[in-house]
């Protein structure tokens, strides 16, 4: 049974006019890895989730758990 992929709307909103490539470079990851996180195909490891939250001046809970 497959579960539908839910995009991370918060990440998309926070990225704004920046490209996925720009954000990925700042995070030290490849664009396709960032894209998979943004589209909900992957969840980042704890270290990367913290790096993303710091980059966007947010919290892991707000970005990935809607809290």
TrEMBL record:
Transmembrane parts of this sequence:
none
Q: Which InterPro entries match?
A: Cro/C1-type_HTH, Lambda_DNA-bd_dom_sf
Presence of the UniProt keyword DNA-binding in the record: yes
Origin superkingdom: Bacteria
Keywords (A to Z) from UniProt: DNA-binding
Residue ranges of every copy of the HTH cro/C1-type domain listed in the record:
19-63
- What CDD domains is this protein classified in? HTH_XRE
Task: Identify a single GO molecular function assigned to this protein.
Answer: DNA binding
Gene3D superfamilies referenced in this protein's UniProt entry, alphabetically: lambda repressor-like DNA-binding domains
What is the protein's given name? Putative transcriptional regulator
Q: From what organism does this protein derive?
A: Tumebacillus permanentifrigoris
